[in-house]
Design brief:
The protein has helices at about 5-60, 85-100, 155-165, 165-225, 225-230, 235-265, 275-290, 310-325, 360, 385-395, and strands at about 70, 75-80, 105-110, 120-125, 150, 270-275, 295-300, 305-310, 335-340, 345-350, 400-405, 410-415, 420. By secondary structure, the protein is an alpha+beta fold. It has three domains: about 5-165, no CATH class; about 165-265; about 270-420, Heat Shock Protein 90 (2-Layer Sandwich). The strands form three sheets. Strands 1-2-5-3-4 form a five-stranded antiparallel beta sheet. The chain has a five-stranded mixed beta sheet with strand order 7-9-10-12-11, covered by helices on one side. A three-stranded antiparallel beta sheet has the order 6-8-13. β9 (about 335-340) and β10 (about 345-350) form a beta hairpin. The model has no long low-confidence stretch (mean pLDDT about 80).
């Protein structure tokens, strides 16, 4: 993931987090206000009905204004304007009317004497009718009222919260999602830093390797061309081993450098018109010279094809696939490189008779550093970068590469090239 893309993700993620928190806060606040208003209206209706019942019971008239007065969020005073003679009747109707408005939370009430302004009776009422009782608290007085009773809902906040559990649950899920996203971003940033350190290390390491590799190659060539060395069969063989291993090490370093360029988006394709038939023929001829056993041949189903591509990287792609066909073959390699026609263009097909690849591993074949599982035995050495490089170069050109393989039968690689011209 590029640094520019990570910055965009961070910015968009931060905006999303702020937006989610703001929306959730606003939503919960509005939900609380709605529930609070519903509670207040329901309590007002219930207490108004109780006051009307008491007035009818006492043949009194209720005041037209300020019948229900709210002292705080959970304390209400009811101005009945007449003496309350039967406390039991009051309590029964409080139970009944509060239940009728679907408020199922405990309440406590107090009745005050108009002459002494002292509470003459108070009780804590549980809506669940449990045996456990609670002592009523001292409720506030309303000095400007004569005949009144006070009702308090001590668990009002808990009751409203219990009715908001769905909103709170959704909000909690949203907050957890935000926290998970934030954690994911931190992990991505950490992985990005580690990846950058890894890339810098690999780039520095491979560049540092280039100088000694070149020096060893020059020294190996000098040693191998010395007359005395060439006359000594044993020393000549050792010199040849040095040169071959130097070339192998140089190839591996080049692969690492190419992959690093691909990941850093610094690899530039130098496209030019290439006569594909001629290029493939030259590659097959050079590969045949290098092969110690087996055979390789070129099949031209279409003639005179010109493609617009990077010659160096296209050559490396074909060489990589052929090298794998030779390395992963337990018998004499039989390789066919064919240029075939497709409905939308042409394709390069490379078929071999190697050990093949199980189907469950095919989808990982082009992954970086991936090597097919062969147990603890690795007869073929490498970094697992060759086919990753092949896939990346094909993707950079806009080509598609496919592979079909069966164990003990061989593999077939096809590179579809949609744009071409007849020479």
């Amino acid at each position: 993931m590029s640094e520019h893309l990570i910055k965009r993700v961070l910015v968009m993620g931060s905006l999303a987090i702020v937006g989610i928190i703001a929306v959730q806060s606003f939503w919960l606040s509005k939900s609380w206000d709605i529930r609070d208003n519903d509670f207040d209206q329901s309590v007002t209706i219930a207490l108004r009905n109780v006051a009307q019942i008491i007035a009818n019971y006492n043949n009194a008239t209720l005041p037209k204004y300020n019948l229900i007065q709210r002292r705080s969020s959970n304390v209400y005073a009811v101005n009945v304007n007449s003496k309350i003679n039967d406390i039991g009747v009051l309590e029964d109707y409080l139970y009944q009317e509060i239940s009728n408005v679907f408020i199922n939370t405990d309440f406590e009430y107090a009745v005050y004497d108009c002459a002494s302004s002292e509470m003459i009776y108070g009780n804590y009422c549980k809506m669940d009718n449990s045996a456990k009782r609670k002592k009523a608290s001292i409720l506030p007085k309303f000095k400007h009222l004569d005949y009144y009773f006070v009702v308090k809902f001590p668990e009002r906040e808990s009751y409203i919260v219990s009715n908001l559990w769905t909103n709170i649950l959704i909000g909690s899920v949203a907050i957890l999602s935000v926290l998970f996203f934030t954690y994911s971003i931190l992990i991505i940033m950490r992985q990005k830093r580690l990846s950058d350190l890894q890339k810098d290390f690999i780039n520095n390491m491979t560049h540092e390797f280039k100088t000694p590799i070149s020096s060893i190659r020059i020294a190996a060539d000098v040693i191998q061309n010395d007359v005395h060395i060439r006359e000594n069969q044993r020393l000549s063989r050792y010199a040849n081993i040095i040169r071959e291993q130097n070339l192998r090490l140089n190839d591996q370093v080049e692969k690492v450098l190419n992959v690093a360029q691909l990941e850093n988006d610094t690899l530039k394709l130098h496209k030019e018109p290439i006569q594909l038939n001629s290029l493939l023929a030259d590659i097959v001829e050079a590969s045949e010279i290098k092969m110690e056993k087996g055979s390789i041949h070129f099949v031209e189903e279409v003639k005179s094809i010109t493609v617009n591509a990077d010659k160096l990287h296209l050559t490396n792609v074909v060489y990589n696939i052929i090298d794998n066909a030779v390395k992963y073959c337990e018998k004499d390699p039989e390789i066919e490189v064919a240029l075939i026609s497709r409905d939308n263009g042409v394709a390069i097909r490379i078929r071999d008779n190697g050990i093949g690849i199980p189907k469950e591993y095919l989808r990982f074949l082009f992954d970086k550093f991936y090597r097919v599982n062969t147990g603890n035995v690795h007869n073929v050495k490498g970094f697992g970068l060759g086919l990753y490089y092949v896939k990346s170069i094909c993707k950079a050109h806009g080509w598609e590469i496919r592979v079909e393989s069966e164990p003990e039968t061989g593999s077939v690689f096809e590179i579809d090239i949609p744009e071409y011209a007849h020479g």
